[in-house]
Design brief:
Length: 94
């Protein structure tokens, strides 16, 4: 079953550019993962510094591989002090 992830990430005030750079670094290696079908970053027009990832994975194993990958773990470590909020939604198409 394909899994879609929507992650809403909000930067601490003054950390918007730092968060954007951290997010940009994780995109290329994530797109190259086996089982990653989509990995697209958006930024809110109305709320700059609010980023939304749209991700799609072939199955749970592909998502697990992504979460445990060195590049994703490095991003999570780097983003700890940059994030004011992080909401992640695991979705299935209906």
């Amino acid at each position: 079953m394909e899994i879609t992830i929507t992650a809403v990430l909000t930067a601490h005030p003054g950390k918007e550019d730092d968060l954007r750079q951290a997010l940009d670094k994780v995109i290329p290696p994530s797109r190259q993962e086996d089982g990653c079908l989509a990995y697209v970053l958006h930024e809110s027009i109305d709320a700059p510094g609010t980023f939304v990832f749209y991700e799609k994975y072939r199955d749970e194993a592909a998502l697990d591989h992504h979460i445990n990958s060195p590049h994703y773990q490095a991003y999570r470590q780097a983003a700890q002090t940059l994030l004011a909020g992080r909401d992640v939604y695991r979705l299935r198409e209906v």
